[in-house]
Predict the structure of Phosphomethylpyrimidine synthase.
Amino acid sequence: MLMSTQMEQARNGIITAAMKTVAGKEGLTAEEIRLRVAAGSIVIPSNHNHTSLSPEGVGLGLRTKINVNLGISPECANLDSELAKVRMALDMKAEAIMDLSNYGKTAEFRHKLISMSPAMIGSVPMYDALGYLDKKLEEITPREFLDVVEQHARDGVDFVTIHAGINRETAQHFRKTSRVTNIVSRGGSLLYAWMELTGHENPFYEYFDDLLDICVKYDVTLSLGDACRPGSIADATDGAQISELIVMGELTQRAWKRNVQVMIEGPGHVPLQEVVTNVQLAKKLCHGAPFYILGPLVTDVAPGYDHITSAIGGALAASAGADFLCYVTPGEHLRLPTLDDVREGIVAVKIAAHSGDIAKGVPGAAEWDMKMSQARQALDWEKMFSLALDREKPERYRKESAPEHQDSCTMCGEMCSMRLMNRIMD
Amino acid sequence: MLMSTQMEQARNGIITAAMKTVAGKEGLTAEEIRLRVAAGSIVIPSNHNHTSLSPEGVGLGLRTKINVNLGISPECANLDSELAKVRMALDMKAEAIMDLSNYGKTAEFRHKLISMSPAMIGSVPMYDALGYLDKKLEEITPREFLDVVEQHARDGVDFVTIHAGINRETAQHFRKTSRVTNIVSRGGSLLYAWMELTGHENPFYEYFDDLLDICVKYDVTLSLGDACRPGSIADATDGAQISELIVMGELTQRAWKRNVQVMIEGPGHVPLQEVVTNVQLAKKLCHGAPFYILGPLVTDVAPGYDHITSAIGGALAASAGADFLCYVTPGEHLRLPTLDDVREGIVAVKIAAHSGDIAKGVPGAAEWDMKMSQARQALDWEKMFSLALDREKPERYRKESAPEHQDSCTMCGEMCSMRLMNRIMD
């Protein structure tokens, strides 16, 4: 039996099991989910071959989702250390994991990851292409690039990042902008290099219909990557970036005609005053497709703390309508993240997503804060820990610093305003 | 000779040494600074008796400043550990330190702090009152409260937080709002308790002119504290908070008539979508006086990570016109901050301040990012470290993870887009 995509079924009036699951998780009706999947404003990345998946929706009116990047590479070809990150991401309830493996036993890692993950799995097939094909970049043919995508799709990847928007025209705009940091997307820079070395059009743009065939077959969601995402705040919202976004919008409509689900990837490094503009532009130029962003980092000057610079941008972006946030760890710009870096990155992006959800009025978001504040007012420490976004750290902090009065903490002690007010207002 | 305040001199057309210093630091003319000090939109907290001070301006068009809270208390009466925090704050270029000491040798600590600090020093005399006067709260007289303020002023404190806005009328509004977290300001809750226990009006409101006498004498800047700042996002922007803000606006004009410099203190816990509103309300209701905020924390659910929740709110607030950010450490709501907590809090608030400065177009702000991105593009690691907001952590991260190629890092290694693009574009 040929299975069809979530989008095709939605458009045919069919409510799928995945739509029901998503509706249950979001507190919406399955019909509301179906309508938005049909319109393209929600995606449910769910490859037919990812049988362990617990589907999540990404898009309009839904809780902001988060993604954790990991994968094996020449710098860390150790499967176990990357699998430890997978387990941590799953324990911390990340809705998505992107496998950025680019070296070594990538297929083995991918198979393990997919079979163990209820979280949706994304990949960047371009990263895997060089190692998988074992060829020089310029010798890879368009067909071979597509073969790698199909291999990932067959393995059960739920969404693939494809930098199809950096075509020859976008590349022209890029060359005219004289950027501070050129192209900082890895996949994007590889494609640009391939185009320069071969003189040919971007294979994913030229053979976009063949790419859609693969997406239709497995119901792989297309995550249109932004090769020209700014790598410095000076490069944000420039001609290169926005011209690529226009092409991505056109490709979105072509994909939708084939009932292929689409997400749009966004920057990057963006100064605070341009974050909302970027979300609006992406949503507008790409016809309301779900917006997935990396960061954005609102300043370039804080290496070692880019989980914070990106939490600022991510919270603001989510509040303005971004649907899906990719975590950034303290290791960004410096090193492959350690397990601790991964943990810190996940906490920071969850804070950003939740702050955005409160602002955009996602049902249930502010209620969580209400419960925490009621527990705080009642000086109910156990309840505060159980409601904490991350339980381990606050519990440890309190243990390390034993208060004189069990109901207060060492910050204010005797002078605790909560205690005093509770006494005065009795 | 009786020395007058910065504001009085500004209004008399006099450019003081402090105005010249501030102008030099900000890249503005001394006349621009004078005009704004005269109008009240800039303050230069600089007590005549704080001789080690290197004056800073706080307010319209200036770089956003940051404050570090510390001080001795029953939970940490050890002067040395608090002095270590002072040294760290000074090393990390905090423009202000607030001494929240409330127990033990507070006078000794304050004297040491002031004599060693080029940073401006603030205090909350109310915290010190109980220990200093060694009396039950309800037995303290209005005159005694003022005596403590005068003691701090005589010692050289540059600005004092005074919760004068929570008068009987504000207290009525507070009682009608049925808040989740009542009054969470320590000084505010003590004053509210005093009012409830004695039946009298807030002494700082009733004897505001006497308070101004002290401020005039030493040129102490009045930082009007917000007793009704929300302690949970549910309580933000409510009748209690805004009615107090209206009173603070009226007191601001009374202070300005006496040539006393004024700052307005703000919340607290505020959901992201109300942060800009809060800044606008404070600026409007308080006639453009500089706005000094604690946080705001955009969610209540992340104890252990409130340096991040407040960096989100602080960055957005600064971008909207907040002039002065108080740091929040990971220990907030949990314990007195350790030295490490202080360090993390300072870095986070500096990120917030700088991100806001880029957004509000403070001269020179974005240029820092430009230099960093140029260094990144050139793969010049030494330059990146020297430009980093905090140098220690990125340098340590890189050392801990030695890359194969000295020009790249272990995050992307061979696949570094910067390296690839530099090669392709040559």
